[in-house]
Amino acid sequence: MHTFTGSDQVGDVVARFPKAAEVFKRHRIDFCCGGGRTIHDAAQASGLNEDRILQELSDLYAENANLNEQNVNWANESMGALVDHIVNVHHAYLNTTLPVLGELTTKILRVHGANHGELASVHRLFHSLKMEFEQHLIKEETVVFPKIVEFENQKSDASLEVKNIYTLTLFHANI
């Protein structure tokens, strides 16, 4: 179990544990420009309960650690189980994280872009990558994964293409 302390800097916590941004956003603690402040100072300045924030961070960290400790040999699981895992874990993560990163990238450009021209390129590249990810997820969920599940349900070797898709999906799950 990881322990957070009031002397930890807000920005360092988010850099080491990005999901901590959820806690800081909920409490309106700036982890970008105000990231150099300690949790103690940020809580005190906002009139917040430091112990509550530290507990929320620890709980979220523990919850994430439990999810990440699930070791499954996907080669021994059904194709449908693998598809469900990818959609419910990996795609769900991207579907919640990409919009947040998009907002943060836009905010950083808005706040610091006038003094850092390179941020416009970072913003453009991130949003291009985000769009490619989103298109990839849609294609998997609407074309690729239904074919895998259909192949598994029919138990037919007629479609070598589907078997190859499954192999690629298995590889994708282990990345």
From TrEMBL:
Domain called Hemerythrin-like: residue spans: 85-152
Keyword Aminoacyl-tRNA synthetase: no
Top-level taxonomic group: Bacteria
InterPro entries: Hemerythrin-like, RIC_family, ScdA-like_N_sf
Locations listed in the record: Cytoplasm
GO molecular function: metal ion binding
Residue ranges of coiled coil: 50-77
GO cellular component, one term: cytoplasm
Keyword check for Coiled coil: yes
Pfam families: Hemerythrin, ScdA_N
Keywords: Coiled coil, Cytoplasm, Iron, Metal-binding
Protein name: Hemerythrin-like domain-containing protein
Organism for this UniProt entry: Kyrpidia tusciae (strain DSM 2912 / NBRC 15312 / T2) (Bacillus tusciae)
Lineage of source species: Bacteria, Bacillati, Bacillota, Bacilli, Bacillales
